[in-house]
Inverse folding.
């Protein structure tokens, strides 16, 4: 090797790369990449489906043109970078390993195929575009090279544009608006309407129809319940062999609801493709089911097996290529109950055509909402691909929510109703039909795990039935406690006596079941809190070992669990080949209460029954509490979860950040300036000391919050307000204190943009990010419609910028002034204290005492030097 002759260390000497073959990365190309790697000191292995995937622990990198290979999620969990083939060429040209993030095939990095250079555009716009491109997986090049894909420019007459045109390099010359719209949507849209020299978005005639383009992302994934085999599938004995199932054990769930003939045809296709049909969930590679429930679904999901629906199975057969069931939403089983919050919604579609429309109609049905063919005044939402249609005009006149499909897809992916106030859901780029980016949202496995097959639901998994069935008493109790295939909802179980006695009750069986599976729970340091935040993140190695250990344990006891589930279907359970009528501990079904002949058993059973009734009937919610800075919960997730459950049993619901609008009480150790405190204050809650939580938990009863009102006179004097007045004014303001105010934040502001935006939103204002552009975004409708006689109102004449006294922020001040003065308004650059003092006092304050000047920046620098 050349590197060896020169005495240099080979470039890839520490790299062991797994090259994954696919449609875009053929075996011939893979062997060429492998030769290049080996010539430069690297090691590699080539994977071709359906061969078993090699152990990931051997590799430092995975090279693939797509994320559609079986071990992608495992590679991410192990922090092994997945890169596209051009990572190899980029590393060779730089003579150092290129950043793998810029070459990731992850579709969430939607600019990962873009190599961008900038022409004659303002420096502020240039910096913003470069930052956005790099953040979304693209690459910036300062010069025009043969690798560049896009030139961002305002005119086709610039030097770079003329060079590209003269040499016919095939580089697209686009307006900066294209990047702006892509970043707002979080999706890569077509460049055609933005391409110079004649961009469509600048042409006259804005009311002309917007074209609809073909969408391949939803092909074969428009419905979760296909009624028949695709017409492209040949008979099992045809000439085309489907080898995607080779070496795979496939289980067809009973909830599919398909006929015997269709089931037989599918089984033959799988078997002729080298696969096998199994009914043992512990030995399955692929589970095909309809719903996100049942023993087989939970067990296969916890064992990290592939779980998809019939539509996914047909897609595999049609294309004879593996794809993740999480990639397309309707390839994954649906919920029987629908998405919470969607049950009363009536949604209509507009401007989506073809398969994209069918897909969205079925997605609406999967959420549990109603999809209406026509738009009426009783509709709640209109989902549209662009806002240039009669339906959109009517929906706005009727006050309906007009959103794009991203609202629907991301609500389904996150399994939570998303706020329509998010601008990503109400942004419609000019001359673009958003039907072209339908179906690009993936399901999040972490969300599915948390809500549908969490390992914390310990009472959903029974103990080893082989041990349980060796004892007649245990079997009696187990059969009584688990007659149904559907497990009870997770509940906190109380410890019972460890004394072993004959005729043990179901309580003893349940406690044994919990102790048997304590080892299978997710480690406490990995559990999520109720508001979705993690505690201190462990190293990837320990996290991976914990997951592997839990999966291995589940795999070991899976045959026992399957046998147990089978036996519990039999009336009365099975023991020693069956039960006799004369067995004194025989369980009698269809009776409201079972009474034992032994007095001790009777008392024990009654206690158990009372305990169950008590757990099922939780008291109604008397307080909705937002908690901030409660020291006993800091870095103690286990205690926090237990305390929140105990508080709920007392009638206190602890709210997450997103539910602050519902709060009735706010608990804090003192007056704080945390986002939780400031946001909750806008809703006028009763503010109490965190001692209230401590005492309620200690005495295990709901105390009077009036005895724990927060008193912090020192902070009130320092800030210049009182809590009592603030809460009273908040109720009068009704979250409209900042209505009409336009407030901008600099991206690097201490505390983060999202924190300040949440405060402005909670008080009815409008907050946006300022990156140095001199063009003013479109004003909210409430500002445009205000009467001109209100010119004395600062919310109409002034635009505010939150900034810190640092040189980096000062550089952006002239651009902000230029932007605001360009629309005839007054720019005010203020400290963040202006916003915080307004939000905490719940009264408007002038910007005079908070305004920033260049002198402040100079003084701060001198102090730092001193």
């Amino acid at each position: 090797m050349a590197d060896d002759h020169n005495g240099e260390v080979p470039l890839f000497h520490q790299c062991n790369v797994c090259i994954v073959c696919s449609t875009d990365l053929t075996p011939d190309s893979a062997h060429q990449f492998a030769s290049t790697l080996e010539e430069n000191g690297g090691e590699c292995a080539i994977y071709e489906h359906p061969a078993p995937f090699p152990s990931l622990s051997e590799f430092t990198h995975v090279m693939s043109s797509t994320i559609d290979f079986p071990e992608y999620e495992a590679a991410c969990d192990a922090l092994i970078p997945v890169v596209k083939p051009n990572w190899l060429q980029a590393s060779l040209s730089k003579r150092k390993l290129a950043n793998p993030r810029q070459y990731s095939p992850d579709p969430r990095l939607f600019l990962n195929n873009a190599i961008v250079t900038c022409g004659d555009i303002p420096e502020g716009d240039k910096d913003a575009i470069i930052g956005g491109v790099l953040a979304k997986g693209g690459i910036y090049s300062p010069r025009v090279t043969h690798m560049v894909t896009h030139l961002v420019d305002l005119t086709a007459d610039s030097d770079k544009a003329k060079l590209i045109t003269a040499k016919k390099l095939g580089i697209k010359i686009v307006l900066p608006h294209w990047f702006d719209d892509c970043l707002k949507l979080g999706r890569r849209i077509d460049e055609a309407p933005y391409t110079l020299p004649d961009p469509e978005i600048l042409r006259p005639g804005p009311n002309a129809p917007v074209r609809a383009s073909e969408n391949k992302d939803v092909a074969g994934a428009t419905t979760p319940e296909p009624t028949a085999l695709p017409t492209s599938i040949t008979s099992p004995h045809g000439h085309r062999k489907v080898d995607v199932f080779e070496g795979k054990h496939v289980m067809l769930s009973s909830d599919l609801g398909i006929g015997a003939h269709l089931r037989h045809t599918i089984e033959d296709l799988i078997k002729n493709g080298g696969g096998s049909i199994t009914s043992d969930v512990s030995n399955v590679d692929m589970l095909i089911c309809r719903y996100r429930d049942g023993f087989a679904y939970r067990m296969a999901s916890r064992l990290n097996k592939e779980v998809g629906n019939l539509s996914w199975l047909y897609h595999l057969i049609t294309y004879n290529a593996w794809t993740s069931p999480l990639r397309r939403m309707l390839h994954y089983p649906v919920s029987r109950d629908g998405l919470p919050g969607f049950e009363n919604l009536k949604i209509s579609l507009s401007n989506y055509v073809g398969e994209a429309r069918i897909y969205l109609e079925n997605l609406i049905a999967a959420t549990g909402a109603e999809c209406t063919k026509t738009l009426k005044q009783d509709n709640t939402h209109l989902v549209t691909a662009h806002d240039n249609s009669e339906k959109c005009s009517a929906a706005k006149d009727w006050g309906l929510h007009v959103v794009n499909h991203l609202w629907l897809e991301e609500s389904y992916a996150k399994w939570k109703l998303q706020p329509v106030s998010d601008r990503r859901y109400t942004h419609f780029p000019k001359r673009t039909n958003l039907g072209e980016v339908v179906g690009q949202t993936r399901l999040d496995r972490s969300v599915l795990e948390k809500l549908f097959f969490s390992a914390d639901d310990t009472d959903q998994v029974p103990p080893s039935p082989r041990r349980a069935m060796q004892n007649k008493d245990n079997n009696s109790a187990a059969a009584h406690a688990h007659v149904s295939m559907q497990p009870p909802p997770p509940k906190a179980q109380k410890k019972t006596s460890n004394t072993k006695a004959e005729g043990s009750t179901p309580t003893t069986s349940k406690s044994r079941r919990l102790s048997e599976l304590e080892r299978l729970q997710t480690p406490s340091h990995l559990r999520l809190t109720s508001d979705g935040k993690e505690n201190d993140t462990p190293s990837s190695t320990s996290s991976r070992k914990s997951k592997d250990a839990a999966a291995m344990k589940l795999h070991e006891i899976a045959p026992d669990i399957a046998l147990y589930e089978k036996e519990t279907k039999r009336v009365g359970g099975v023991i020693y080949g069956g039960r006799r009528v004369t067995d004194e501990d025989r369980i009698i079904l269809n009776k409201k209460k079972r009474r034992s002949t032994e007095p001790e058993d009777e008392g024990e059973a009654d206690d158990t029954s009372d305990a169950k009734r008590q757990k099922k009937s939780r008291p109604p919610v008397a307080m909705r509490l937002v908690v901030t800075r409660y020291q006993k919960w800091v870095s103690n997730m286990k205690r926090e979860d237990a305390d929140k459950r105990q508080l709920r049993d007392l009638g206190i619901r602890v709210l997450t950040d997103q539910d602050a609008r519902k709060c009735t009480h706010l608990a804090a150790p003192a007056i704080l300036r945390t986002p939780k405190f400031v946001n909750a204050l806008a809703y006028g809650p009763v503010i109490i000391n965190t001692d209230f939580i401590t005492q309620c938990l200690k005495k295990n009863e709901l105390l009077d919050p009036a005895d724990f009102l927060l008193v912090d006179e020192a902070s009130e004097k320092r800030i210049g307000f009182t809590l009592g007045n603030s809460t009273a004014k908040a109720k009068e303001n009704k979250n409209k204190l900042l209505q009409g105010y336009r407030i901008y934040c600099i991206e690097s502001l201490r505390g983060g943009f999202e924190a300040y935006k949440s405060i402005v939103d909670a008080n009815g204002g409008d907050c946006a990010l300022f990156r140095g552009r001199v063009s003013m975004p479109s004003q909210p409708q409430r500002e445009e419609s205000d009467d001109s006689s209100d010119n004395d109102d600062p919310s109409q004449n002034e635009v505010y910028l939150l900034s810190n006294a640092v040189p980096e922020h000062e550089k952006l001040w002239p651009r902000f002034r230029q932007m605001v003065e360009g629309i005839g308004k007054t720019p005010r650059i203020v400290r963040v204290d202006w916003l915080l003092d307004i939000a905490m006092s719940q009264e408007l304050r002038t910007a005079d005492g908070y305004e920033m000047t260049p002198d402040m920046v100079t003084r701060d620098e001198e102090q730092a030097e001193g």
